[in-house]
Amino acid sequence: MTPEQRLANAFVALAGGTEAGPLDVPRTLSVLAHRAPVLLGVRAATVVFAPEGREPALVAGSDPQVSRLEQDAAEWREGPGHDCRQAGDRPPAQESLDSLIVRQRWPHYSPRALRLGYTHVMALPLRSRPAANGALVLLSRAPRSVSPGAVTLGTSLADFTALMLERAREADRSRTLTAQLEQALSGRVIIEQAKGVLVTLRNLSPEDAFDILRKYARSRQRPVRDVAREVVEGRADPELTGGGPF
Questions:
Q1: Distance between CA atoms of 172 and 25, rounded to whole angstroms?
Q2: What CATH code is carried by the domain that includes residue 228?
Q3: Which residue of 23, 74, 75, 223 pairs with 28 in a disulfide if CB–CB is 3.0 to 4.6 A?
C-alpha cells in the first residue's frame, strides 16, 4: 500500500467510513492513535481528549504501555498532552525527554517515557474553539525526530479528528435528547391511557381522573408514569381503580 493510500484510508476511517459504522468518541481516538505512528514516522502515539475540562480525560494509545502512560499523565496533570491543552496557540515543539528542563517540568512523565525507550516527544493540539480539547502526542527515539512534513500532516490529522470528535459528541447529545423525548412521550401516552381507564371505571372527567392519579402517586412517593402503567395493565391497587379512599 502506498503512503497516499494509507493517508486516504486514515481520513476515511476517522470520518467513520468503515464497516463498523459511525464512530463514537472512544473509537475515533483509537483510530488516530493507532494510525499516526505509521503515517507520521514515529514510534508511538497517544491521544488525550478532555472537552470543557472533562475529568477523567479520555485516552487512547498505539500500544498499552503508552496508553497507560498518558492516562497517568492526565492524573498527574503533567506531560506534553496536558501542557498542549493549556498552551493556547503556542506552536508545537519537539522536546528532549532527557533534558534537565523537561525532567523538572515533567518529573513523573519524563523518566517513565525514557524507561519505555522514548527520547523525544511532541504534542499537537486537537483544536476546538475557544481552546484545545485534547492533544495528539507523538513519541520517537533518537536519532529519528519528527520531520517538518510530519508535523504539517499530523496537524491536519489532529484538526480533522477534532472536527470528527465534535460531530460525534453532537450525535451523542442528539441521541440522548431523542431518548429523553421518547421517554417523555411514552410517559405522556401511558398517563393518557390510564386517565381513560379511570374515566370509564369511576365515571370521572379526564381532569378529575388525572388529579386522582397524581394524588395517589404522590401519597405513595411513586412516579405518576409507573402508577399509570399499572392502571393500564390491570395491576393497579383496587383502592385506586375501584374508588376507595386514599
A1: 9
A2: 1.10.10.10
A3: 23
| Residues 157 and 21: beta-carbon distance below 8 Å | no
Residue 246 in any domain: the answer is: no
Read off the pLDDT of residues 166-209 as tens digits, 9 standing for 90 and up: 877 776 777 777 777 777 777 788 888 888 888 888 888 888 88
What 3-state DSSP class applies to 93? coil
Same domain flag for 49 and 134: yes
| Gap between the Cα atoms of 196 and 64, Å rounded | 59
The CA distances from residue 62 to 9, 37, 44, 82, 137, in Å, are 17, 8, 6, 18, 10
Task: Render pLDDT for 111-144 as a digit per residue (tens, 0 to 9).
Answer: 999 999 999 999 999 887 666 788 999 999 877 6
C-alpha cell at 64: 498499552
